[in-house]
């Protein structure tokens, strides 16, 4: 791609398509995640990254090579990678003595780091450890966040938002009822976060709504919250700004009352009640003077003769 | 008795309902918050730590997950469903959790140099109509105007050629000739291309009566001609005769003056030229009358010098 003072001019149609896909849009694409390894990684971390990549497929890229960077200190290489692959979520796995089995979940806004939360893996069961049939790839998972910490603590709130963003998948208008198989359950308890992945079985119940039975499938993690790098409030606010075009258009003249009845107003011109169009009754019509009276008499006599 | 049985019936019905719903009802202190657009459920209830420690961790988490998922599924099933190609799908509402965007919303493209200039000068964009010139319409319009002129007895200058879309060779040649001769000196001094031939068939077209046409007309015309030739009296055009007489008188006076004037009379040379021209004309036209006197058949060529 040829560059001219920062403006890239694509040479092929494929390049042009990629640039258009990467450009700002009104309704955005699914967030892509890049999963990468740090300078030193353990077996646990590599396996964990692979499992999360399996959960997040196809909107994720897994890098094989190690990247010797420290996201909390220098995030330039992360931003560079995100721009190259058009990813706004990342997962960085590393391992050292001070922070064993470290996973950093993060997201970017406009290819600059927005939030980063470091989680340490205390206990881990991989996909291969747990036997049983798994969910097909790409199913939209149901997410459940349990525990009051997710509501009271600031860091946990951000973590909740980050995890939702990470795992929710594409936003769709409708979902197949039989396809609601995957459930990701996060529990915040005693400073730890337990992540479990289940497969839901819809069993027959007496009524329309099925009874749920769960079967554990996917990776299970016991996380501990370590460092965080959260975005400042105004940057967070800017990131949330929705374009005006997306707001639903308010229809004028329509109002609802407390019962839910829909009201609208009709605007009419002033009516002249004297000239209103009503049913015409010939007998009630006004007759003028004696001539009129004679006419009436004549009419009535005529009518009587006709009848006879 | 009847009342008792009704009460029993109602109680039984309630029991049945409860039985049915038992499988899907979950007892919770606080109701869960849902974001069905994202398939997310938030459980804010406090988790009993003692229970968590007593039970096996996994079982506790699994039962908690099962309850929460059941509530989420109950909520999803409340939404409207539709059938799409033999598959039942549930229509999801818009997601309610505010999540940050990937990139800032697209900015409207900046105005170009021309647009800025136009705004500065107050130039508005004029919409061009989709009308295209059509030769048939133009011809129709021309004839229409000519008809109107003829009806209102307005003199209309002759139009050389009307434009035609598909022009043949002869049309083009004619157009060239018309263009050539439409100069101040009637095309006399226009250069010709090396191999261009002089245009033929130019000049006034003589109109002849058809050979076999109106018999009565032809008969009438021939008889008139004979009558004119037969008559002893010359056909006299009073106007022309008077003018001729006046000119004769003027010429005589001029000649008399010339004789008198001598040198001064050189000016008379002009008069003679005029007189000649006038005389020639008069002779030529007068000859028509004179024709009747002489022998009917004669050398017409010699007798008509003025006509050409």
TrEMBL record, chain A:
PROSITE patterns tied to this protein? BRIX
Presence of keyword Nucleus = yes
What is the protein's given name? Answer: Ribosome production factor 2 homolog
- Show the InterPro entries listed in the entry: Brix, Rpf2
Give the start-end ranges of region Disordered: 280-308
Offer an example of a GO molecular function term for this protein: rRNA binding
User: Do the record's keywords include Nucleus?
Assistant: yes
- Extract the PANTHER family matched here: BRIX DOMAIN CONTAINING PROTEIN (PTHR12728), RIBOSOME PRODUCTION FACTOR 2 HOMOLOG (PTHR12728:SF0)
- An example of a Gene Ontology BP annotation on this entry? maturation of LSU-rRNA from tricistronic rRNA transcript (SSU-rRNA, 5.8S rRNA, LSU-rRNA)
Basic residues bias (residue ranges):
280-289
Name the species this protein comes from: Oncorhynchus mykiss
Which intervals of the chain form a coiled coil? none
From TrEMBL, chain B:
Segments of skewed composition (Basic residues): 257-267
- Basic and acidic residues composition bias: which ranges? 189-199, 218-238, 245-256
Question: In its UniProt record, which GO terms are filed under biological process?
Answer: ribosome biogenesis
* Leader sequence segment: none
Composition skew (Gly residues), residue ranges: 268-281
Has the keyword Signal been applied to this entry?
A: no
State whether keyword Nucleus applies. yes
Q: Which family does it belong to?
A: Belongs to the RRS1 family.
Please state what the protein is called. Answer: Ribosome biogenesis regulatory protein
